[in-house]
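quick one if you have a minute, typing this from the bus. theres a chain ive been looking at and ive put its sequence and its fold in token form underneath. please have a look and point out which stretches look like helix strand or loop to you. anything you notice is useful, everything is just below.

***
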Amino acid sequence: MSLETDFQPAALRRAFGRFPSGIAALCAVVDGVPQGIVASSFTVGVSMDPPLVMFAVQNTSRTWPVLKQAGRIGVSVLGSGHDGVCRQIASRDGDRFAGLDLHDAASGALFLDEAALWLETSVENEVPAGDHAVVLLRVHGYSTHGDAHEPLVFHGSAFRNLAVPAFA
């Protein structure tokens, strides 16, 4: 058995892309303006007591320093029809929220319609981790929407949907 030792970013991205993940949009209204980032590194169940989730954000992000100032951040686990929404929010140009169906909580947390899961969160801790920071978020409330929306999955550098199980 031989293991690869090519740690160039492109090679690592291909290797890490073999692990399927959900995608979350983290959004809030800051100083009257919607702000948001997307994260394929989002993880739930970090802790049940207190309820914590986490994600990793690049140190070069221009949006995260603004977004983390929000008192509450809405996490929308993207639904199966959100591949275009994901690209739009991740874009560096234009109005990243134009035409999106949004739900603005009184706290300032911002949620996307037809998400698989909503979590209202606040920043608990941020830990340096190489060229990223790992951010722990405390969950203050959630909605599963009665399981009405299947999640969008990112795998092999592509958006995918979960197969609907066949029942006999």
Notes: The first strand starts at residue 21 and ends at 22. The two ends are 41 Å apart (CA to CA).
